[in-house]
Amino acid sequence: MPNLTLTPLASLRYSTHHIPSHSLIPNTSPHSHPLLIYHSVYPPTTSPSAIEAHLPKNGVSPQWRYTMYSTTHYHSTTHEVLCVFKGRAKLLFGGESNPSKLETQVSAGDAIIVPAGVGHRLLEDYDSGFQMVGSYPKGCKWDMCYGNAGEEAKADAVKDVKWFEKDPLYGDDGPALWKHDEAGKSEL
Fold it and tell me: What tens digit of pLDDT does each residue of 107-166 get?
């Protein structure tokens, strides 16, 4: 099985995004964990098999290879780790009508940690082949929520989802374990 070659942590470019609740999508408001994007964290030619072999070492279970749904949805029971291995796409986080939404481009080599409650969807697949490995912390089962009436109890449950014990990619250190303030600054 091929090894996953990660960008050295000291050289990693990453971004943090706090997205407030909007309508019935909780986003990052119920907890203190931002959406994290690790830019070019591994080479864009990395195979999905290498990603799938690496993640379980850090307490994350790969469960699928696919694109992202084009309907805004969130998970109330688990955080999600998305590792792009093919193509590039524009993604939307936070919900279409949210004034604080994030529209961003990702490409092969990027990884995204989507905290429970953060609405997300595919806006545009630039290369008609955008693919990711989707993973969740071991023992967690994902659900599908859409910010509809009747999902209030699920939205409320987001605040109780336990955070990662290890950074999904780097293990005992890494952005998922660092404190991030609302302005996006990180503290070790």
Answer: 999 999 999 999 999 999 999 999 999 999 999 999 999 999 999 999 999 999 999 999
Residue 181 lies in a domain: no
Residue 22, domain member (yes or no): yes
For residue 184, is it within any domain?
Answer: no
Q: Does some domain include residue 59?
A: yes
- Please give the model's pTM, rounded to 2 decimal places: 0.95
Q: Give a three-class secondary structure readout of the chain.
A: CCCCCCCCHHHCEEEEECCCCECCECCCCCCCCCEEEEECCCCCCCCHHHHHHHHHHHCEEEEEEECCCCCCEECCCCCEEEEEEECEEEEEECCCCCCCCEEEEEECCCEEEECCCCCEEEEEECCCCCEEEEEEECCCCCCCECCCCCCHHHHHHHHHCCCCCCECCCECCCHHHCEECCCCCEEC
Please state the domain count of the chain.
1
**Range(s) of the domain holding residue 17:** 9-155
Model pLDDT for residues 64-109, shown as the tens digit of each residue: 999 999 999 999 999 999 999 999 999 999 999 999 999 999 999 9
Domain containing residue 117: CATH number:
2.60.120
Cα–Cα dist 59/139, whole Å: 9
